[in-house]
Write a structure and sequence with these properties.
mainly alpha, 2 domains
Length: about 160
């Protein structure tokens, strides 16, 4: 589908280019702009205006020191955020809450894994009764998964 859109877009681009070549829109616009630029000095005026604005901005920045004030405000905000997060993590209630959520997620993962394995056992028993060969391998991999999760849980309990 994407390739068709690319081909259609490419075709539309070719048609637009041929239409432009036939009606000379781009060349007439370019010549009109060049003519206006020569008469009015449009490019020169725009570049001079941009330079004046840049100079005024620099003068205002030097006078009011907006850049420095902004940089220092950001630095202070970063320090406050870092100290607040450190204080939160040192708080007993917050760390206990984080530990409780972590334990709940671990228990949920264990329950999901047990459910997955029991579903596989039922499915493979049915498959084995019908002469399937993969039942033993699937049960073995399921037991390995349980063993790995038990190791992870024991490591987490030791860390806390």
């Amino acid at each position: 589908m994407l390739a068709k859109g690319f081909v259609m877009g490419k075709d539309a681009l070719r048609k637009a280019q041929s239409f432009d070549e036939k009606n000379q829109f781009t060349t007439s616009a370019s010549t009109t702009y060049a003519s206006l630029d020569r008469k009015i000095g449009l490019t020169k005026n725009l570049s001079m205006g941009r330079a004046v604005v840049n100079e005024k901005m620099k003068a205002l920045d030097e006078r009011y020191q907006v850049s420095e004030a902004t940089k220092s405000a950001i630095a202070v905000a970063e320090q406050k955020a870092a100290s607040a997060s450190n204080a939160l993590m040192r708080n007993h209630y917050v760390s206990s809450g984080v530990l409780m959520v972590s334990n709940a997620l671990s228990a949920f993962a264990k329950a999901a894994e047990d459910e997955y394995c029991s579903t596989w056992k039922l499915r493979k028993r049915k498959d084995l009764n019908q002469g399937g060969q993969n039942a033993t391998a699937c049960l073995y991999s399921c037991k390995q998964g349980i063993f790995r999760s038990e190791i992870r849980n024991s490591r987490r309990k030791k860390a806390t």
